[in-house]
Amino acid sequence: AHEGEQISFWALAQRAQLLGELLVGYQMRNSIDKTVLNPPQKDKEFIWDRYDLAIIRGEVKVSRAQTDTVRNTVRGFVTLEQRTAIKDLGRDNFMSGGGMRGSMGYTS
């Protein structure tokens, strides 16, 4: 990430993929805190200036079809993560908004 840039883990992972790298997690710079692997909320934007990224690098030769398969798999996970976030948001709104009474046309 560029200094001061606000970007999601997923977007960073996609950039890393373009460079032949696999982003797997992060850790607070100059810290003994645990490295966060496969972090939750990958779609949440964040400023990464104070973090080191955990990246796997390697020389792997793959065909165009294999690259497309990996790209489609990552997109599938992104879609699943987004759907889960929307579902969780709907559940939270439902729980805090008094249930279904207002949405079904019921009145008190």
Describe this structure in words.
By secondary structure, this protein is α+β, with helices and mostly antiparallel strands. 40% of the residues lie in helices and 21% in strands. It has 2 helices and 5 strands, in the order E-H-E-E-E-E-H. It has helices at 9-18, 64-96; strands at 6-8, 21-28, 36-37, 45-47, 51-57. It has a 3-stranded antiparallel sheet, covered by helices on one side. It has a two-stranded antiparallel sheet with strand order 1-4. 4% of the residues are buried.
Question: Could you name the ranges where pLDDT drops below 50 across 5 or more consecutive residues?
Answer: 102-108
| H/E topology pattern | EHEEEEH
Profile the largest sheet. 3 strands, antiparallel
Label the overall shape.
Answer: flat
Strand content: 15-25%
Helix content percent band: 25-40%
Query: Which assembly state applies to the chains in this document?
Result: single chain
Round the Cα radius of gyration to an integer and report it: 19 Å
Strands of the widest sheet, in order across it, are: 3-2-5
Report the count of strand segments. 5
Question: Averaging pLDDT over every residue, what do you get?
Answer: 83
The structural class is alpha+beta
Number of helices: 2
How far is the N terminus from the C terminus?
52 Å
Summary tags:
single chain, 108 residues, alpha+beta, three-stranded antiparallel β-sheet, two-stranded antiparallel ribbon, 21% strand, disordered C terminus
Write the layout of secondary structure elements.
Blueprint: E1 6-8, H1 9-18, E2 21-28, E3 36-37, E4 45-47, E5 51-57, H2 64-96
Antiparallel strand pairs: 1-4, 2-3, 2-5
